[in-house]
């Protein structure tokens, strides 16, 4: 049965529950979708597309819970996330296994997915130091001004399939730690690990209604964008959907942040450490089957580094393709049959557009998993702007190689690309690295680091077409995203205070 087929919930397969008001409940919807293991096509569960009433109930429960949660002591909030980080550590193996089964990435990479989210939970447990206001003493005679960062109310998160643990954990811990309540809409392709995290969140002490989860696709997302009681939305996903969410939710008066699609370039200078660079490129282009928003999808080989293509191909050939559960596997399956069709379609088109197919990953042999959505590492050389494999996000294990005469030409190419999620340079020259970080118009820059995703002491800072909204997820920026700054100016009189009469000017006296 196709994963998108509408089906009733009344078969033998387990159903994914909604979380409303602290209860895991069965949806009353008539529309269901299969959650499928991409290595085997086994149906793991059925996920509901929630009804409007169910979305309304989730938001209503979050609204009610906000009345008390917003006034809950900082220490109480912090300790819940201390407990949650402990529970995630204790259940790491189980979380990774669920994630691999429904998403396909290898078990070690699935642990990495959970771990990068865990770091945000740890960060949320430091909320006491993060949500501090400011105070200026004696801004006028006897007058002090201070600011407080107050929670907004009900916030919502919409997440993509490629990091079903990390990205939900980018969102609800910081939103809730800052005093908001939350409605999460995970990807309908792999919602199971997200639900296990929600169970752990309740076990850690998140009160009923503070975290709610609804499932679905376009209709549920639109209901969230339109809902009058939702104050802010954090979205991660494709550029097309993110732009729609941003426009629709902004029009409805909400605060919105959207982290979206990418085309990440890595410049390779001829002086780079060759072995380290080839390892980094292969890992960043083909790891997670290229389904990372920060995957390197274009290698810009500068000058003599263009002669490294055969070495790059040889390196890519060392990667093992297989089911994410099997030991020693580097490249798992693509998430769905639709993703498989899209990625192989791009490879078909690339050759027609004049690029040279140096390594063809179509139809790899994966014994025991003949039905899996496997595509092996694929490398095109001679790629040029204008080709669809360069212009569009393939989101598969496909690396486009472009040549450049010097660093200026390489930087110009990257800055002309609309996307600004991530980029990297490989070089042993401090001067080249400094020029690159100074002149490149991309929000996250790696210097001999292929996937420069910041740890939560910083924020995720994709830019240009990869992002809409001013403030990024986690780090300091997200505290501002999930709070309203209120500034208080105060003066106190005692009986001895001398009156200066009526002040008809704007100045504080
Ligand atoms: P997607 O845009 O298809 O889905 C994202 C979310 O939007 C899902 O929850 C989905 O249910 C919902 N959705 C899908 N179609 C919709 C529609 N027509 N209307 C309203 N909502 C809809 O993205 P995906 O395929 O799950 O994830 C891959 C994409 O996410 C890639 O483009 C990748 O670059 C991007 N991504 C970006 C970042 C980042 O931080 N910039 C991180 C991870 C993934």
How would you portray this structure in words?
The chain has 509 residues and is an alpha/beta fold. Helices cover 36% and strands 21% of the residues. It is built from 16 helices and 22 strands. Strand 10 (230-236), helix 9 (239-251) and strand 11 (255-259) form a beta-alpha-beta unit. Helix 8 runs parallel beside helix 9. The longest helix is centred in the N-terminal third of the chain and has 18 residues, at 52-69. The termini are far apart. It binds nicotinamide-adenine-dinucleotide. Nicotinamide-adenine-dinucleotide is lined by residues 158-163, 185, 187-188, 217-218, 221, 236-238, 241, 244, 259-262, 293, 393, 395, 421, 460, 462, 466.
Strand order of the largest sheet: 14-15-16-13-12-18-19
Bound molecules: nicotinamide-adenine-dinucleotide
Q: Helix proportion of residues, in percent?
A: 25-40%
Instruction: Please state the average pLDDT score.
Output: 96
So how many helices? 16
Largest sheet, described in full? Answer: 7 strands, mixed
Low-pLDDT stretches: none
Rg calc: 25 Å
Q: What is the strand tally?
A: 22
**Shape category:** globular
Terminal residue distance: 75 Å
Instruction: Give the DSSP E fraction (strand runs of 2 or more residues).
Output: 15-25%
Task: Indicate the structural class.
Answer: alpha/beta
């Amino acid at each position: 049965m196709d994963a998108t087929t509408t089906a009733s919930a009344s078969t033998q397969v387990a159903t994914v529950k909604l979380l409303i008001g602290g209860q895991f409940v069965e949806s009353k919807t008539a529309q269901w979708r299969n959650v499928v293991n991409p290595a085997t096509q086994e149906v793991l569960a059925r996920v509901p597309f929630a009804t409007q009433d169910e979305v309304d109930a989730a938001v209503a429960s979050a609204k009610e819970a906000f009345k008390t949660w917003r006034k809950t002591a900082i220490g109480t909030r912090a300790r819940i996330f201390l407990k949650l980080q402990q529970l995630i550590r204790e259940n790491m193996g189980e979380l990774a296994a669920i994630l691999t089964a429904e998403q396909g990435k290898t078990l070690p990479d699935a642990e990495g997915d959970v771990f990068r989210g865990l770091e945000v939970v740890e960060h949320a447990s430091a909320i006491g130091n993060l949500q501090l206001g400011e105070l200026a003493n004696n801004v006028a005679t006897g007058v002090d001004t201070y600011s407080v960062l107050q929670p907004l109310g009900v916030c919502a998160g919409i997440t993509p399939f490629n990091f079903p643990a990390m990205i939900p954990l980018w969102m609800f811990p910081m939103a809730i730690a800052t005093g908001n309540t939350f409605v999460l809409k995970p990807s309908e392709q792999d919602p199971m690990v997200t639900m296990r995290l929600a169970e752990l969140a309740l076990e850690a002490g998140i009160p009923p209604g503070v975290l709610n989860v609804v499932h679905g696709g376009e209709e549920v997302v639109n209901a969230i964008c339109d809902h009058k009681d939702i104050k802010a939305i954090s979205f991660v996903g494709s550029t097309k959907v993110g732009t729609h969410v941003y426009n629709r939710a902004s029009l409805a008066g909400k605060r919105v942040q959207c982290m979206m699609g990418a085309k990440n370039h890595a410049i390779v200078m001829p002086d780079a450490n060759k072995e380290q660079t080839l390892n980094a490129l292969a890992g960043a282009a083909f790891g997670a089957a290229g389904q990372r928003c920060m995957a390197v999808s274009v290698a810009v080989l500068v000058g003599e580094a263009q002669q490294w293509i055969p070495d790059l191909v040889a390196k890519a050939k060392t990667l093992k393709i297989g089911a994410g559960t099997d030991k020693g596997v580097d490249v798992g399956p693509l998430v769905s049959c639709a993703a498989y069709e899209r990625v192989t379609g791009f490879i078909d088109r690339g050759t027609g557009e004049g690029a040279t197919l140096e390594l063809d990953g179509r139809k790899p042999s994966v014994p025991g998993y003949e039905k899996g959505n496997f595509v092996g590492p694929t490398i095109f050389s001679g790629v040029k702007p204008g080709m669809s494999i360069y212009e569009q996000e393939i989101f598969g294990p496909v690396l486009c190689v472009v040549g450049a005469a010097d660093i200026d030409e390489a930087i110009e190419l990257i800055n002309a690309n609309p996307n600004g999620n991530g980029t990297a340079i490989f070089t042993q020259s401090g001067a080249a690295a400094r020029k690159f970080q100074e002149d490149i118009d991309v929000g996250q820059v790696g210097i001999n680091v292929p996937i420069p995703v910041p740890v939560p002491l910083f924020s995720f800072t994709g830019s240009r077409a990869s992002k809409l909204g001013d403030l990024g997820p986690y780090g300091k920026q997200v505290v501002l995203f999930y709070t309203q700054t209120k500034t208080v100016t105060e003066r106190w009189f005692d009986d001895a205070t001398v009156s200066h009469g009526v002040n008809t000017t704007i100045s504080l006296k």
